[in-house]
């Protein structure tokens, strides 16, 4: 069994509302801080590929800069159309290192 956790940043690199671009082994994703909770999800919007690193974190959602689609920072689901769901990744903090598990989270029913 391989360890799929990767250190991508340090605590203190992000302030609440920040979104960083992360690339690991060719996978593009974003790491953000929503309140006191880190989240990680795919970088490209499901609508027309907007770059979510330019998105805005607001009230539990990451809002695409292009046309305003809102995705839950907890689940990746579109706020109004649950059939659209970004790939999300588990995040943990270990010794001030923010780590992302590259194994996508399992989906739950909408
Ligand atoms: S590209 Fe994201 S809302 Fe249109």
Low-confidence stretches: none
Give me the number of helical elements: 0
Q: H/E element string?
A: EEEEEEEEEE
Radius of gyration: 13 Å
Looking at the overall shape, the CATH architecture is 3-layer Sandwich
What structural category characterises the helix and strand content? mainly beta
* Fraction in beta strands: 35-45%
Descriptive overview:
This protein is mainly β and 110 residues long. It has a single domain (5-101), classed as Rieske [2Fe-2S] iron-sulphur domain (Rieske Iron-sulfur Protein). It has no helices and ten strands. It has a four-stranded antiparallel sheet, with no helix packed on it. Strands 1-10-9 form a three-stranded antiparallel sheet, with no helix packed on it. The radius of gyration is 13 Å and the shape is globular. The model has no long low-confidence stretch (mean pLDDT 92). The chain binds FE2/S2 (inorganic) cluster (FES). FE2/S2 (inorganic) cluster is lined by residues 45, 47-50, 64, 66-69.
A few lines on this structure:
With 110 residues, this protein is mainly β.
What labels describe this entry?
10 strands; mainly beta; three-stranded antiparallel β-sheet; 110 residues; four-stranded antiparallel β-sheet; binds FE2/S2 (inorganic) cluster; Rieske Iron-sulfur Protein; single chain
Topology:
Blueprint lengths: L4 E6 L8 E6 L2 E8 L2 E6 L13 E3 L2 E3 L6 E3 L15 E2 L1 E4 L2 E5 L9
Antiparallel strand pairs: 1-10, 2-3, 3-4, 4-8, 5-6, 6-7, 9-10
The chain binds FE2/S2 (inorganic) cluster (FES).
């Amino acid at each position: 069994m391989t360890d799929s956790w990767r250190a991508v940043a340090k605590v203190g690199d992000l302030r609440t509302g920040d979104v960083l671009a992360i690339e690991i082994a060719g996978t593009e994703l974003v790491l953000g801080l929503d309140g006191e909770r880190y989240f990680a999800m795919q970088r490209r919007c499901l609508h027309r590929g907007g770059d979510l690193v330019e998105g805005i974190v607001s009230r539990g959602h990451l809002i695409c800069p292009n046309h305003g689609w809102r995705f839950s920072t907890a689940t990746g689901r579109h706020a109004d159309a649950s059939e659209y769901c970004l790939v999300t990744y588990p995040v943990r903090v270990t010794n001030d290192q923010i780590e992302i598990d590259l194994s996508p989270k399992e989906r739950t029913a909408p």
